[in-house]
Amino acid sequence: MDDHLEFNQNGKRNTMRYSQLLLPTLKESPAEAEVVSHVLMLRAGFMRKLTAGIYTYLPFGLAAIRKVENIVREEMNRAGAQELLMPMVQPADLWKETGRYEKYGPELLRFHDRHDRESCLGPTHEEVITDIARKELHSYRDLPVNLYQIQTKFRDEIRPRFGLMRGREFIMKDAYSFDVSDEAAEVSYMKMYEAYKRIFSRCGLDFRAVQADSGAIGGSFSHEFMVLAKTGEDTIVICKDCEYAANMEKAVVKLTPETSTEPLAEMEKVETPGKRKVEAVCEFLGIEPSLLVKTLVFKADGQPVAVLVRGDREVEEVKLKNLLGVADVEMAGDEEVFKATGVPTGYLGPVGIRVRVVADQEVAAMRNFYVGGNEKNYHLKNVNFGRDFQAEAVADLRQITPGDPCPACGGQLKLTEGIEVGHVFKLGTGYSQSMNATFQDSDGQEKHFVMGCYGIGVSRVVAAAIEQNHDDNGIIFPIPLAPYTVIVLNLGVKDEAISAAAEKVYRDLQAAGLEVILDDRDERPGLKFKDADLLGIPYRLTVGNSFAKSGKVEVRSRRDGATEEMTPEEAVSVLREKLLAELMKK
RNA sequence: CGGGGCGUAGCGCAGCCUGGUUAGCGCGCCUGCCUUGGGAGCAGGAGGUCGUGUGUUCGAAUCACACCGCCCCGACCA
């Protein structure tokens, strides 16, 4: 019996004896971890930190990652994509072609090699893949093509956090599609969209595909795949009644057409001494914040712009940025506001203001509202859009709230947190143009590739799965992601009959094609139970005293704790049935 | 980078404010006994440049300054 020469079809060592594994579980949580997935991945011995945002994946952590990778690989291949592997180290020249060497910012780790050549570590691979395309794809007959890789990316994140959730080094699947036209690119996009739905479903995750901000490109060709979890860093809006789901930044506010019949009243100046905040002004005047319009000054690529929203609303900076077509917007400070408008903050209003004005659509529909008087200690009442002031643009500029109706069906909306695990994006011809990547179309014309890119944070998926599947005792792996699906506990290491039975059932489970680990450590039962729970292995098979008495072993489900006693032979067939049925769902 | 916090044994912490022998505790680890169905018990033991450097002092884990590292809150993203 030479354990070390046995491998299964996945190249995984067939004999997994806990006593020989590097699986350093921890009783206490390391101080460095804050969120559940991070704590559990450290406690369960899945990984160890090397330095900020950079981890070593220990055997069990790697096994979980491999599970995700394999699902991703299968579905990408099924969708017709081809796997390749691009370099991590990339020459700066390539990045200069697209201008991103300058634009990308400090997240791109730049360095010089021994010949003093400028280089960088790949945070993403549009440049490299486009270079391949322009060199190797020449004809419309070569298209469409979708190329992907599963690779370690490096992004020098400002603040890595939450373990694998936002590391600097992380494993990503990135795919790039090349098409002859917009229409064809949209087909490629939809294929990926469908593939992603299959991937995350197969991973056993509760997720939503949400419309995302697609920046300058526009259209509905950017979706983020969000795993619903409280620790998510993004806020998403989902409809309780229909399929609508969007990133908060992008969620469309649907105006309920309010036809106020209130007659327009005469504009008046009112004194509001020392009242600057919306709350203070409203309390002083005895009005609701929804009757007031606040005027906020932003710096749009450095230029001041006043934005009008109702007193109880918040400006959505991404919408503002897209409306203005600028790279960056930022709230102006008190001093900057005064410098630009000559009015101290708190009393700013649109009537007679000195800077550009844009208004949220809601403001244009309001009647007889209050605004700042553009004079210290004064506000104006009975102000009306159009009559008393104008705006350069009227648009949806505010953040959506749970009180807003669903833009798709009018139903009720809910805000929730999500972890972004995937992003599909139609790129268009930006990269192919800047890098001059062309093919010859059927009409003989040289055309630029229409591209798309599609990412999945593989290591993040593992963290997200744990965020979504755990209890006080540890991880509860969805079966498709579990490093092993059965753990056999030998509770009588020194008892020949028990040990022999544990060995046999372990071998039989392997022979049945299951991924199984044998806890053969000479430890007390309590410790083994705790470790089995912590590791999150879906099924636990215990061979102990009851076997000595009755010849039965215990099969327990990690997820619901359901426990059954049966003979080892029954256990093998029961587990095989449960697990193979689960894994056949493709 | 801005704001907050922390670096003492593999992990979790106390000691520091108010300097003074061999720097403690719990877990883990090693040896032995004992125990064996939910992180046992007893006995013995190994393990520390107190993050680094400079300074103050008769004397620094303890005080000061600088640096390094890590964690948390903000802008970024898979």
Strand coverage percent: 25-35%
Mean pLDDT, rounded to whole units?
90
Span of the ends, CA to CA = 35 Å
As a percent range, the share of helical residues equals 25-40%
Q: Would you state the CATH class of the largest domain?
A: Alpha Beta
Shape: globular
Q: Provide the structure class.
A: alpha+beta
CATH architecture of the largest domain: 2-Layer Sandwich
Number of domains: 3
Structural descriptors:
586 residues, BirA Bifunctional Protein, domain 2, YbaK protein, 3 domains, nine-stranded mixed β-sheet, 31 strands, 28% helix, globular, RNA-binding
Question: What's this model, at a glance?
Answer:
The protein is of the alpha+beta class and 586 residues long. The strands form 8 sheets. Strands 3, 7, 8, 9, 10, 11, 12, 21 and 24 form a 9-stranded mixed beta sheet that branches. The chain has a 5-stranded mixed beta sheet with strand order 16-14-15-17-20.
Architecture overview:
By secondary structure, the protein is an alpha+beta fold. It folds into three domains: 47-252 and 414-466, BirA Bifunctional Protein, domain 2 (2-Layer Sandwich); 268-395, YbaK/aminoacyl-tRNA synthetase-associated domain (YbaK protein, Alpha-Beta Complex), CATH 3.90.960.10; 484-586, 3-Layer(aba) Sandwich (Rossmann fold). It has 16 helices and 31 strands. The strands form eight sheets. Strands 3, 7, 8, 9, 10, 11, 12, 21 and 24 form a nine-stranded mixed beta sheet that branches. Strands 16-14-15-17-20 form a five-stranded mixed beta sheet. A five-stranded mixed beta sheet has the order 28-27-29-30-31, with helices on both faces. A hairpin with a 5-residue loop joins strand 5 (110-112) and strand 6. Helix 13 packs parallel to helix 16 (568-584). The chain is globular and about 95 Å long. The two termini are 35 Å apart. Residues 1-5 have low confidence and may be disordered. The structure holds one RNA strand of 78 nucleotides.
